[in-house]
Structures are given as structure tokens and as C-alpha cells.
Amino acid sequence: MAERFTGYVALGDSFTEGMNDHGGDGIFRGWADLAATRMAEADPELKYANLAIRGKLFDEVVDEQVPAALRLRPDLVSFVAGGNDALRTSFDPARMAGRFHEAIRVLTASGARVLMSTGFHPPRLPAHRLLRKRIVALNEIIRKVAKRHDAALVDLFADEAFADTRMWSEDRLHMSALGHRRVAHHVCQALSVDPDPKWSAPLPTAPGKSWLRRRREDAAWTREHALPWVQRRFTGQSSGDMITPKRPQLMPVSQVGS
Questions:
Q1: Percent of residues in the chain assigned helix, strand, coil, to nearest 5
Q2: 150 class by beta-carbon count within 10 Å (0-12 exposed, 13-18 middle, 19+ buried)
Q3: Sheet order of strands, 152-154 included
Q4: Would residue 227 count as lying in a domain?
Q5: Mean pLDDT of all residues in 53-59
Q6: Has residue 219 been placed in a domain?
Q7: Which parts of the sequence are annotated with region: Disordered (predicted)?
Q8: Number of structural domains the chain divides into
Q9: In a domain, 111, yes or no
Q10: Fewer CB in a 10 Å sphere around the end CB: N or C, the chain?
Q11: What is the model's pLDDT at position 2?
């Protein structure tokens, strides 16, 4: 039986904001919007807020978004953070573990049902082995925290479908529209909500690419995405600078794209 909620607040970074799933109104949509829309089909009274902002590090999500969520008094909160930290040399899972427990403890103590998700590594990023090792360490923390605080856990790391490059957008870091729908499928299942069957439909066999085409794509990715990311690291900038939450207040889900 599906769990019923009156207010859902999504917390996190670009993954939860919905990059790069472009909505018809020019605002990123993503898995959280899709899951909220599906829940609202069963319960039209559901209200939804999304406080996630691209580029946010784990501590920023805890310090900025958790207090804001508590003020909204939701009975469902999704908390997915730490992926941006894993991309940095300063990544420290041991230090993160304590704050992870405290953040989820505070959210559950408010009476909210908390939903968490394991991380996964995009298949076409450089330093593949190092990134995978960091994601495994982060996931170990997430699983322990979810078990300790009885949070709903979505294990995306176990889904081999995300190894398909079509689940990822051109920047190779964020999900494509297909990827967000696959995530929404898992989230709905974790909450005992019927997902849209199309979200998990098998993809047709992908056409092969020549060696030359793959090298051209690699060069374009380096120029258009990798180098700007490195430049932001050197200058201390974030892709989320000057960005505000797309849905800062709990509102009816009727205006969210499907």
C-alpha cells in the first residue's frame, strides 16, 4: 500500500534539482518533480517543494537546506547529497559520516519520512576507478545512516541500467531525461507508489560509434564541459552561485511538468 503524504520537500544538488532534464517552461524538471507528480495523481492534495541547487556540497545542503525544510514542516523529505564532494580532492567520508547521521536524525525527529539514495558514478568521466572507490565509500555511509534511522533507501548503484551512456546528458555528469525517469521509477517503488511503466522500459540496442567519432566527442566534452569545471575550481566559483531554489515553498503539484 502506498504511503500517503501531505508535503514533500526535496533537498540536494543538481541531481535533485533536475539537471539536465529540460522542462517545457525552461526550468529543469528531474526525478523529484516526476515522483511528486506521480504521488499527486493518487493524492491531489499533496504539496511539493524543491530546495536543491546545483553545485552544492554536502555541508551546504545540511547547513542551508535542512533548516529551510524543517520550517516547511513536511512529512516526506528526500535527502541526496555528497556527490559533488566525491569529485574533489578534499573528499573525507569519515568526517561526513557524523554530519550525515545528525542531519537525518534531525529530519526524522521532526516526524518526516526520509528518503535517501546511494550514489553512482557516470560511466564516461575520467579517473573512473578513483571516482568509483569514493562513491563506494560514500554509499557505505548512506546505507548505514538509512538503516540506523529507518529511512527509505533507493539503491541506484545496484542498477546496471545506469551504465548505459544514454542515461547521461552531454556533460557526462548529469542525468539525461531518460536517466531521471529511471530514478523516478526507483523512488516511486521505494514509496510503494505505482511508477509510470515507460520510465523503466528497456532501451533499444544503441548503434555503434566509430573510434573517430568517440574521439571527437571526447574533445568536444573537454572543451565545453571539463575545462569550464576546472576553471571554476581554480576561481572558487560554483555552478550554483546566484541560483535560487526552483520551488522554495510547498505548493500544489499541479504546475509541475510530467
A1: 50, 15, 35
A2: exposed
A3: 152-154, 113-117, 76-80, 7-12, 47-50, 247-252
A4: no
A5: 96
A6: no
A7: 237-258
A8: 1
A9: yes
A10: N
A11: 65
